[in-house]
Specification:
The protein has one domain. Helices cover about 75% and strands about 0% of the residues. It is built from four helices and no strands. The longest helix is centred in the N-terminal third of the chain and has 37 residues. It is elongated, with a radius of gyration of 20 Å.
């Protein structure tokens, strides 16, 4: 018994996999930026509450993480960074 392949199925599958990879990459990038922000905050000797840490770790918005990272080097408190 021979199996048939259908080009449209392969194309749809490839598109689905590409979207999944893009989402996975974005999540990985967000996790890396969140970890970098936490390291900057800790490196400056600032205290992170559990809620602040969770907020950073759960953030999936790259633009928001970028804003926080820019503030991370200069803001006097964690509340000001996340403000």
């Amino acid at each position: 018994m021979s199996s048939e392949t259908y080009p449209y199925q392969s194309k749809l599958l490839a598109e689905r996999e590409a979207r999944g990879e893009a989402r996975g990459e974005a999540r990985g990038e967000a996790r890396g930026e969140a970890r970098a922000l936490i390291l900057v905050i800790e490196g400056r000797g600032l205290h992170l509450t559990e809620n602040q840490r969770r907020r950073i770790e759960q953030c999936q918005d790259p633009a928001q993480l970028a804003v926080w990272l820019k503030r991370g080097g200069v803001a006097p408190t964690v509340a000001d960074i996340l403000g």
